[in-house]
DNA sequence: TCTGGGGTCCTAGGACCC
DNA sequence: TCTGGGGTCCTAGGACCC
């Protein structure tokens, strides 16, 4: 065996549910659903995750809590607790940094690792043992030549396993699968591809990139074929991610119709976002207001600020001005405020390139 | 199953300028 | 004005992911 560069994708199994079960060991083996404030009678609240026992009752993440309660009246409902997940995630990422690997964190429960070794499976098993010994959490590890392969491999490795998907076994593993199996092709694109006669990964890989470009745009079209060929990014970026923007939104349990009420909520969301931007030390350059009308029609309006700022009054004023560009004569179920940040100066991320 | 919240990137059309 | 072509910025929406 020869030493070679690998990309590993580490994915914590059932992360939110696993953290909750560590905090409430007495609930192990019971149907548990996590989401919202933990009140399953609250309308317009959905499950963030559900344990395997809850899944046996047909409950899954994204399902309204009221539906979950109907399907399993004995289920235990817990409120979502982001700070707890943040803390658990940080402990895991700290463990990864003790290994001779380059670490790129991808959200709470995932990381890509760059490693040079002749035995990636042993490295993967060592990582799993370290994470489990120090946190009680299990994870799946995918091994690939690039992030796309490693990401799909960790999916095949679930739960708690190790799987290798490289250019050597890509075709035999992926060619017969639907295009939606690729990371970055969802239900919509998969359907459009099928309408063009492209149902499988093999068919997409053999498609004419110009034909794809004509249907999906100059970047996306050829990119889909690239994915079908098993290609993908192979750079591990070890510097912390710099957010492009930030947002806050609220779905109201009951519709809003009073204009003063609507304005008040938008101003409050804008102040919150401005406060967050200030805490993060970032300047705001654009403000977007999002309105979701009943039953489910979503519209956005945005404007670029005359000057960058983090001042809550200025941002709230801008958001309220934008709000009044909407037709507000229909009941509203969601309001949101998003901002775009200016890129921080001296922003030169260090890239560690594989291959 | 009456459908969360927080992100990222791409596309297309119009305005505007040379 | 019976008007070419390209570049850039701004805005709204779509798709995807966790």
UniProtKB/TrEMBL annotation:
GO CC field: cytosol
Swiss-Prot/TrEMBL GO biological process terms: DNA repair; DNA-templated DNA replication; error-prone translesion synthesis; SOS response
Site (Substrate discrimination): 16
Pfam families linked: IMS, IMS_C
Keyword Nucleotidyltransferase applies: yes
Compartments where located: Cytoplasm
EC assignment: 2.7.7.7
Note on cofactor: Binds 2 magnesium ions per subunit.
Cited InterPro entries: DNA/RNA_pol_sf, DNA_pol_Y-fam_lit_finger_sf, DNA_pol_Y-fam_little_finger, DNA_polymerase-Y, DNApol_IV, Rev_trsase/Diguanyl_cyclase, UmuC
PROSITE patterns: UMUC
Enzymatic reactions: DNA(n) + a 2'-deoxyribonucleoside 5'-triphosphate = DNA(n+1) + diphosphate
Family of the protein in this entry: Belongs to the DNA polymerase type-Y family.
Function statement: Poorly processive, error-prone DNA polymerase involved in untargeted mutagenesis. Copies undamaged DNA at stalled replication forks, which arise in vivo from mismatched or misaligned primer ends. These misaligned primers can be extended by PolIV. Exhibits no 3'-5' exonuclease (proofreading) activity. May be involved in translesional synthesis, in conjunction with the beta clamp from PolIII.
PANTHER family hit by this protein: DNA POLYMERASE KAPPA, DNA REPAIR POLYMERASE UMUC / TRANSFERASE FAMILY MEMBER
Database matches in NCBIfam families: PRK03352.1
Name this polypeptide is given: DNA polymerase IV
Originating organism: Nonomuraea cypriaca
């Amino acid at each position: 065996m020869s030493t070679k560069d690998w990309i590993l994708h580490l994915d914590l199994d059932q992360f939110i549910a696993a953290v909750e079960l560590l905090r409430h060991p007495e609930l192990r083996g019971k149907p548990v659903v996590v989401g919202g404030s933990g009140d399953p009678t609250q309308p317009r609240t959905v499950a963030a995750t559900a344990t395997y026992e809850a899944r046996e009752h047909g409950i899954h993440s994204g399902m309204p809590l009221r539906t979950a309660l109907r399907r399993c009246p004995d289920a235990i409902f817990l409120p979502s607790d982001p700070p707890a997940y943040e803390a658990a995630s940080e402990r895991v990422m700290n463990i990864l940094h003790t290994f001779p690997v380059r670490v790129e964190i991808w959200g709470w429960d995932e990381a890509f690792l760059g490693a040079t070794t002749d035995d990636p499976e042993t490295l993967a098993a060592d990582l799993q043992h370290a994470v489990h010994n120090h946190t009680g959490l299990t994870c799946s590890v995918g091994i690939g030549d690039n992030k796309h392969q490693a990401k799909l491999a960790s999916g095949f490795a679930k739960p708690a396993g190790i799987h290798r998907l490289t250019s050597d076994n890509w075709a035999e593993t992926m060619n017969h699968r639907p295009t939606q199996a690729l990371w970055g092709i969802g239900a919509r694109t998969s359907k459009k591809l099928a309408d063009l006669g492209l149902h499988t990964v093999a068919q997409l890989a053999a498609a004419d990139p110009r034909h794809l470009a004509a249907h999906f745009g100059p970047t996306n079209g050829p990119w889909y074929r690239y994915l079908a060929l098993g290609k993908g990014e192979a750079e591990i970026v070890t510097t912390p991610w710099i957010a492009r923007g930030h947002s806050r939104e609220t779905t109201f349990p009951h519709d809003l119709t009073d204009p003063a009420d609507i304005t008040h909520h938008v101003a409050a969301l804008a102040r919150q976002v401005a406060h967050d931007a200030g805490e993060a030390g970032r300047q705001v350059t654009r403000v977007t207001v999002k309105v979701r009308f009943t039953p489910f029609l979503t519209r956005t309006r945005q404007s670029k600020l005359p000057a960058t700022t983090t001042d809550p009054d200025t941002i709230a004023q801008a958001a309220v001005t934008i709000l009044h560009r909407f037709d507000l004569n229909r009941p509203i179920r969601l309001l949101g405020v998003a901002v775009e940040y200016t890129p921080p100066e001296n922003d030169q991320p260090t890239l560690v390139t594989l291959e």
